[in-house]
């Protein structure tokens, strides 16, 4: 592992794909210099949550009282063999296989109960394997770093073992109940879904919020819709040249919007090719390592978009995968009564 820049394989792939067209997007407002350091948490030198500490400021009783419990929107995707994944970057795809089948259980007498019982009692078992950044998931703060450190100065030399991170692993992510806001960039621009490689700007976000008549509050969960989720069943089409956030938009959400958690309906959150070249760092590094803001990806926002639900109660919890830099998540959105 390179101790001077912790970076994920998908971004390395993006670096190789960087073109002259993407370099044309460079300007002082959309780049963050790589000589910048990781963020230090205002919640103390041992803090592993970053912006998720804002959960403690949420009046959950008041928030939940606003929810319209007559409908609950599931924002997660199905997991299946052949689903979109980072196979091009060398990461394992989702796989499922049967470890026990009803007939096999009889033949092997796996329950040790004898053939008479096994013939009447069906028994199935299955196992899965996958990259932790597969399907609807949340990136922990350990996912990206700078100069051998992750958010709040935890170093790979001291805190990364053979069995994962000993700081800021996925097991530290708490259950999240907060105000959620969906920003439908595609609808705001009058398209079914954003064009390939479309790089969302801060102005795009402001325009969508204005049209939706919704404002951002400190500590919100902010989810961006590109419309790409409509291609989810076709993995190659879903993955190919996906639209996503640019650095300018990420800075707006972090610094002006004061978001606690951000997410989108694509696989990479940011647009590829990433705004990365030589002395600069990508959106993931800025949000995770410098701002302490976790990222959700592959969030299914289609049902919210169809009903034009822009404000909701967000409820979500991820698997407590100790030491992992991401974990599957099944988020829910409950509309807010108006």
TrEMBL record:
<feature type="signal peptide">
    <location>
        <begin position="1"/>
        <end position="24"/>
    </location>
</feature>
<protein>
    <submittedName>
        <fullName>Cyclase family protein</fullName>
    </submittedName>
</protein>
<dbReference type="InterPro" id="IPR007325">
    <property type="entry name" value="KFase/CYL"/>
</dbReference>
<dbReference type="Pfam" id="PF04199">
    <property type="entry name" value="Cyclase"/>
</dbReference>
<dbReference type="InterPro" id="IPR037175">
    <property type="entry name" value="KFase_sf"/>
</dbReference>
<keyword id="KW-0732">Signal</keyword>
């Amino acid at each position: 592992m390179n101790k001077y820049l912790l970076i994920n394989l998908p971004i390395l792939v993006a670096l190789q794909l960087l073109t002259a067209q993407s370099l044309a997007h460079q300007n002082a407002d959309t780049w963050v210099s790589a000589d910048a350091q990781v963020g230090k948490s205002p919640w103390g030198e041992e803090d592993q949550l970053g912006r998720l500490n804002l959960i403690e400021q949420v009046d959950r009783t008041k928030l939940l009282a606003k929810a319209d419990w007559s409908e609950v929107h599931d924002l997660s995707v199905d997991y299946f063999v052949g689903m979109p994944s980072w196979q091009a970057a060398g990461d394992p795809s989702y796989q499922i296989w049967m470890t026990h089948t009803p007939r096999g259980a009889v033949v092997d007498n796996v329950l040790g109960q004898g053939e008479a019982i096994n013939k009447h009692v069906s028994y199935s078992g299955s196992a899965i394997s996958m990259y932790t950044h597969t399907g609807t998931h949340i990136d922990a703060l350990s996912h990206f770093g700078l100069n051998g450190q992750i958010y709040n100065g935890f170093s790979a030399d001291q805190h990364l073992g053979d069995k994962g991170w000993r700081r800021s692993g996925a097991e530290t992510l708490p259950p999240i109940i907060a105000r959620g806001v969906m920003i439908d960039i595609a609808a705001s621009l009058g398209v079914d879904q954003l064009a390939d490689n479309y790089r969302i700007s801060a102005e795009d976000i402001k325009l969508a919020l204005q049209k939706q008549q919704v404002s951002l509050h400190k500590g919100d969960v902010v989810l961006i819709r590109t419309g790409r989720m409509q291609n989810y069943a076709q993995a190659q089409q879903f993955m190919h040249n996906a639209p996503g956030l640019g650095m300018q938009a990420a800075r707006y959400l972090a610094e002006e919007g004061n978001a606690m958690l951000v997410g989108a309906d694509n696989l990479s959150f940011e647009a590829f090719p990433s705004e990365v070249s030589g002395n600069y760092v990508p959106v993931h590094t800025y949000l995770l390592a410098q701002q302490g803001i976790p990222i959700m990806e592959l969030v299914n926002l289609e049902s919210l978009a169809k009903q034009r639900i822009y404000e909701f109660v967000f409820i979500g919890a991820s698997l407590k995968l100790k030491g992992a830099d991401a974990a599957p998540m099944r988020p829910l959105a409950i509309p807010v009564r108006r």
